[in-house]
């Protein structure tokens, strides 16, 4: 790992984002719009929004970050930019870590906006500390980014990259406990849900809704989310190809 090369990649990605307002709007505005729609879908039933709002505060940023980063990295490869970069003394992990830092900064802003909107404007009632809710939201965004960078190595076109969204995220969405409590699932499905990182994101948000302090299980959930993100980055560096065949 070379810090200078990693930071140079981070600056380049941020400069690209600065000149792409539509992508920035998708990353920062879309999760806020979706949460606002969710709030007014249950207008008059604040209990329902308080129950599922924290969970979707983690799910929406994860899905958006996954989609944007998978397409962005694939575009680097199909345009030939990635091949030119890797002819220089730039390692694959340096490249992915630079992307991770750039989109990590975006995830911080994304989580700050979504959390402030949900708690301050939409009136979400959270028993746990708001800073921990923010930390989980940031972790979920970073996890989505890492998964997006990983699956981009297996797509040949941007359309294929988008197709990974239902293939990778929808099973996690169905088994994470958002629709059916994980304890009520069949043993096989419960075992599968224990292997999926989104289950721990939703579990952390659930605990923040019901407990008033920093629960050790929430810390464990955050550790699993972080470990899954690092694992995805490592696998992404190992499978990254210079060009699309």
TrEMBL record:
Residues 14-243 form the ABC transmembrane type-2 domain. It holds the Pfam family ABC2_membrane. It is found in: Cell membrane. GO terms for molecular function: ABC-type transporter activity. The keyword Transmembrane applies. Belongs to the ABC-2 integral membrane protein family. This is Transport permease protein. It comes from Kitasatospora camelliae.
């Amino acid at each position: 790992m070379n810090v200078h090369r990693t930071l140079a990649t981070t600056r380049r990605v941020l400069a690209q984002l600065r000149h792409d307002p539509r992508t920035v709007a998708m990353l920062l505005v879309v999760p806020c719009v979706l949460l606002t729609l969710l709030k007014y879908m249950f207008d008059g039933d604040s209990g329902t929004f308080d129950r599922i709002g924290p969970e979707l505060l983690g799910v929406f940023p994860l899905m958006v970050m996954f989609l944007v980063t998978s397409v962005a990295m694939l575009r680097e490869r199909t345009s030939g930019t990635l091949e030119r970069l890797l002819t220089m003394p730039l390692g694959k992990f340096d490249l992915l870590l630079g992307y991770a830092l750039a989109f990590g900064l975006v995830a911080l802003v994304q989580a700050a906006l979504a959390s402030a909107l949900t708690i301050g404007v939409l009136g979400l009632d959270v028993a746990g500390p708001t800073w921990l809710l923010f930390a989980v939201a940031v972790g979920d965004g970073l996890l989505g980014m890492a998964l997006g960078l990983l699956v981009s190595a297996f797509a040949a076109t941007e359309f294929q990259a988008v197709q990974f969204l239902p293939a990778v995220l929808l099973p996690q969405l169905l088994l994470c406990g958002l629709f059916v409590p994980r304890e009520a699932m069949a043993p096989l499905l419960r075992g599968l849900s224990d292997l999926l990182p989104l289950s721990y994101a939703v579990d952390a948000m659930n605990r923040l809704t019901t407990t008033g302090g920093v629960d050790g299980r929430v810390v464990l959930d955050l550790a699993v989310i972080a470990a899954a993100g690092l694992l995805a980055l490592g696998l992404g560096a190992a499978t990254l190809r210079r060009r699309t065949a």
